[in-house]
């Protein structure tokens, strides 16, 4: 049976601290017909020096440099230079299980009607990699636009996607910074691409303490604004009955409130007030939230209020993770390919 080429695309920005382990988790895959395309998104650290060591070590590794445009633009640039029949994306500090691609390729060959296969994932904090964590999520297979429009449950590094589908429906670029993966899944599922969930742990996502991208104070607000744009995009495509079925207006309102919180985290009182004005009262709890936040905005210094919201967000986010008690599940061993 033909062994299709798989292109693994890794966007990298100031990734020198962890990118060797990420590269190793790709090159050590049990499936060998792989090309690894690393797109350096204007790094200012030693990312380029590290990657270039692997160019000499393995001819499957390719390196592209671009000025900083964001992760979405880097993924798209990598795809444009790829040759694979199947496409996988991996962030520069995360890891594949060493049999990930083999399992998914076999599944895709056996299921030609599946456009995207994806899997379960575990998480770990950077300072405690021996403690693996799971999020409580429900995964779906089939034509799942109705599920994904409410919540993105697909971590991008778990997916394997057919190239012809990405060519047909396109890959988002920098205009979808922060939420490009969610837009991609929505766009594909809207066009009736079939998604298939594999009940296997095939990837590991590294979580960082404050200072990483997901912890930057700009991230919360920018993600909310981008998600509002995504909902407006699909609202224009859906008819009135579909918009009502999917509760699009309520979902837009939910993210509008997140813009308010994000503006406060950034200590921007002016934009917080403007965003709060746009937040609609659709029920008693919305009224309580709007009134309470308005009072707090008037009485509490914005830096104090923003810091309180930020800390509460971090506390809440950490509580979504549950430690994995199965001691047989461990991170992939990649130290043999961490080059000196």
TrEMBL record:
Coiled coil: none annotated. The chain crosses the membrane at residues 292-310. It comes from the Bacteria. One of its GO terms (molecular function) is hexosyltransferase activity. Residues 7-169 form the Glycosyltransferase 2-like domain. Pfam families: Glycos_transf_2 (PF00535). SUPFAM superfamilies: Nucleotide-diphospho-sugar transferases (SSF53448). Keywords: Membrane, Transmembrane, Transmembrane helix. This is Glycosyltransferase 2-like domain-containing protein.
